[in-house]
Amino acid sequence: MFNLIFLLSFNIALTIATIYTFKTKKYLYLFIPCMLFLPNYFGISLNNALPTFSAVRGMFILLYIYTFFNKRRDLNFKKILKNPKTIPIPYYFLGCYFVFRAISNLYYITINADAIKTIFLIVFEQLLLLISIYLLAPTKEELITISKIVVWTATVLFVIGIIESFTFFRPFDALYTSLRAMLNDHYVRLGLLRSTTTMGLPGFYGNMCVLILVLILFLYNLTNEKKYILIIPLNILAIIHSGSRSDEIFIFFVLGLYTLLFCLKKERIIRLLKNTILVIALITIFILPFMICSPKYRYFYEGNAKSILMEFGADFDLNEEAPEGIEGYGTNYAAGSKSRIVQFTGITYTIDKNPFFGLGSGADMRNDLHYYWNNTWYICHSYDVGIVEIICEEGILGLIAHIALFIYIMLISINLWKQNKLVSKYFILYMLTYLVTTLSTANMYSFLILLVIYCTNYRSTNNRVGGGD
Fold it and tell me: Which residues cross the membrane (predicted)?
């Protein structure tokens, strides 16, 4: 009964929000968070040869309709074709991303239905999206508002994720309407459920939290409002309750890089220390009562800390002190980073088979993907490392495509440096954070495209392609 009520309520609320944002011409404020956080399993399976028609894809269609009726300016194609010099250099690299990915997948188009799906998604969910938002030309203020909405939406997911871990109650399972099997798994680790909310897997949820941490820090530096510092303890607790060791380590990467980029002056260092003490104090206030009152929760938090230390050479038996009724650490006890390192052998296998075009989209599901372990090549069905996914599926061409995209982001950041150092640094911080998160999961393209949206639109209008008339 709860599932039905939640599903109906959610659909009604989403419909009302869509109508309202259409009428007020603020659809991007709804679309962007839905693009990031709505699960793909919230949809309908029309045909196995086609991607699931998820609610998010329905919202893409609405965005394109919205753009058609509300676009603020047109791309001047005639002017661009007559004078290609009007195209800034970074856009050539952005174009290379789409061209090389398309070529890599076209190689398999006659023998692999997944290649057709991938080309469709690249065009439908990336290229058309960037063109649409470019035409809508959101202002810097609107992009900042979108960032705030994304952060507060994520904050709700932080809270729900923490509650989910303690209670084993997963409210967003009610959104599973697709008849096709999709990512929506759950695992128990150290006696508590690993949080996922709408992200499908704990690792994706943890990565989401790490990427949103960059946006939280951005908004804090932009507004100097303490409320964003108060979100950080929830963010870190959500990462802990995701049970993702890699993301717990990534927290230190983000904060270390943030310190190097933004906190080298004395007054900034002092402010950073004060905020760090506040965050640690709030986390301690939350965790300590649980650890004092319950051996189960003490085992969970101590086990999390020990599991991270084990990644740096410490030796603990995490199952040894498990309270009665708790099986122990759970899945992937000893593998940790080793399981990710092994996946790099898939690159060797791919280069040997087809270096330029890879094994084709969906290779993991077709038994074409192999990893080398204990002197044997094993068939595997998952990617847990983004670069392995890129090369194994799309080969050297796919790798070149993604390098071109990151060059685009870097060039935009450099061009923006003189105009706005703060934003430029955050583009770099977000990009490096995204690259680090790909060491623990497959690519989360919606979060990468979010950065491209910011890069493409967060600059003066006289730098627009075909603009400046």
Answer: 6-22, 27-44, 50-69, 89-109, 115-137, 149-169, 199-220, 227-243, 249-265, 272-292, 396-417, 429-454
Q: pLDDT at position 414, please?
A: 92
The domain tally of the chain equals: 1
Helix (H, G, I), strand (E, B) or coil at 192: strand
3-state SS class at 373: strand
Rounded (5°) CA angle 261-309-205:
65
Residues of the chain with pLDDT under 50: 460-469
469 lies in a domain? Answer: no
Please spell the DSSP secondary structure of 90-103, one letter per residue.
Answer: HHHHHHHHHHHHHH
Cβ–Cβ under 8 Å, residues 423 and 469: no
- What gap in Å lies between CA 206 and CA 247, rounded to an integer? 6
Rounded distance between C-alpha atoms, residue 440 and residue 203, angstroms: 7
Map residue 44 onto helix, strand or coil. Answer: strand
- Tell me the residue range of the domain where 379 lies: 2-463
Q: Determine, yes or no, domain membership for 468.
A: no
Residue with tokens 């051996």: 295
Distance CA 224, CA 21 (A): 29
Question: Would the pTM count as exceeding 0.90?
Answer: yes
Give the per-residue pLDDT at 469.
Answer: 29
Q: What SS3 state is found at 371?
A: strand
Residue 449, C-beta contacts closer than 8 angstroms, at least 6 positions apart: 125, 126, 129, 130
d(CA 360, CA 109): 9
* Angle subtended by helix axes 445-457 and 140-167, to nearest 10: 160
Scanning 224-370, the segments in alpha helix (DSSP H) are: 227-242, 245-262, 266-293, 295-310, 337-343, 345-353
Question: Closest by alpha carbon to 391, among 416, 427, 431, 355?
Answer: 355
Distance between CA atoms of residues 356 and 362, nearest Å: 16
- pLDDT for residue 336: 64
